[in-house]
């Protein structure tokens, strides 16, 4: 493999990491509050707002059921509005974030719903406001599950990021298609897949460890 | 002991002043409860007046009337227990007192103030003066023991400087100082409930609500938790409203009891009175296993409604006053000259008061029975004729 190719692989790895990190970060920033809201806003719940809950839930479902590659193309005008262009690694962060947000929101919703309702009762009995209950009870108690959910989201984003080559985004997937497939360089393809495997492994391992560290429920001394 | 003596409840707790609960934390040490008790006016801390609660039926289901026409007063400084079977409405009742449920009819008064329809924001303030403990403890698994106890203080807006000493004091009170850095998963059930009690007392409430606080614990641990609650009541002057389905809980620490059945209170009063003279069938059913005595099966099976020649009459004697420890049997034997056959018996105590039941057989004919009954009457003992045996 030529030094030129090795440089390309290194660059593509950095691009992938940058896209995934940015999308995961923004997706969490947006998805966490949406997830908390979805989990607490049905009738009779802490932040009861059933209509908004229904509307937001539908929006989340629509986004989640749209295949990623179609989503990328469909929101090109939106991407251009946000990023100034619809082409390139920076612009690719927009569709990745749009895909990650509802995914993370649903994962957070699930994690929050798992929190024992008795804890909410106890906090209410102490005179806690709904916001205090979210901040001091729901999120800390759901944190291990949220971390596992984010791990899953990041792994999925690594997969999605391979598709943004279709709109001129860079990264490992793009490199694999252009060199490995179109120029028929199987060794490049192999290295790209190997790097992705290592990234997925690393993310999963770190996520699992962190979730276990945060989980104080099953301590074996 | 010393941890308790140095603390006193705030003068007024169901206040709507935003910073009351917080300022109470830094209150200067007040005289010990025992010094103040004689001068304190007995007042009603919690009053339910004709309270009803109907849960609107979920889709297609009919509404559930969980409580109907409940009248209940909890006097300042006492321990009132509400006992009833599963589904009787106990949890619903206790949750009305801190606004976790809203009454659909009647009035709820806290320290004389009608809170029935007060908005959630006012309830939040009021709840800081009402502690609550739960059957399943409801501790945050993500927080250490220390941080669990600190939670209500954080919620009340106490500063860091106020929180640490108060939490230490509370952990000393419940004897868990050495577990401050542990997580709930590392504690036994009894220890978890102690944390729950420390947490509930953090903002120095004057009222403590206990929803089946010992139902998940073994009898031994139950006793230690009840002893702690009794101490909290006695030494801190905290009024306690507890609900339970276990008569031993009532017997052990309550002063007053209300029996709830099908959403209605069917009997209430002084614990000793209600337990020793249960009037309602529901109360009798609850009480029999604890303060009643079981006749030996052979005797119970051979009980006859009418006396038989040469047979004996079975009497149940209840000892409910100072005579509970009197040597009744020997006295009757010597004074009346009749031998009593003891069939069953039990000596127990309700609160601090001794209580006993003795089932005896006396010859049905001749002067013996009348003499024994007269003698029992003179000793002010209650007797009940259960039947006759051959
Ligand atoms: N949120 C609710 N919606 C509808 N019905 C309810 C609700 N909460 C309680 N109920 C009903 O009200 C009745 C009383 O319930 P409650 O929980 O007060 O009983 P309990 O005496 O505490 O029973 P347990 O000893 O089992 O805890 C029950 O019939 C129950 O099904
Ligand atoms: Mg209950």
From TrEMBL, chain A:
Subcellular location: Cell membrane
Pfam hit, one: BPD_transp_1
Superkingdom per UniProt: Bacteria
UniProt keyword Cell membrane present: yes
UniProt domain ABC transmembrane type-1: residue ranges: 13-207
UniProt xrefs under InterPro entries: AA_ABC_Transporter_Permease, MetI-like, MetI-like_sf
Main location: membrane
UniProt keyword list: Cell membrane, Membrane, Transmembrane, Transmembrane helix, Transport
Residue stretches spanning the membrane: 17-40, 52-76, 82-105, 145-168, 188-207
Gene3D superfamilies (UniProt xref): MetI-like (1.10.3720.10)
Membrane topology according to the record: Multi-pass membrane protein
Family: Belongs to the binding-protein-dependent transport system permease family.
Record PANTHER family: ABC TRANSPORTER PERMEASE, D-METHIONINE TRANSPORT SYSTEM PERMEASE PROTEIN METI-RELATED
Designated name of the protein: ABC transporter permease
Record organism: Alsobacter ponti
UniProtKB/TrEMBL annotation, chain B:
Keyword Translocase among record annotations: yes
Keywords per UniProt: Amino-acid transport, ATP-binding, Cell membrane, Membrane, Nucleotide-binding, Translocase, Transport
Keyword check for Lyase: no
A matching Pfam family: NIL
Gene Ontology molecular function, alphabetical: ATP binding
Record-annotated membrane-spanning stretches: none
Residue span(s) of domain ABC transporter: 46-287
PANTHER family associated with the record: AMINO ACID IMPORT ATP-BINDING PROTEIN, METHIONINE IMPORT ATP-BINDING PROTEIN METN
Similarity comment: Belongs to the ABC transporter superfamily.
Name of the protein: Methionine ABC transporter ATP-binding protein
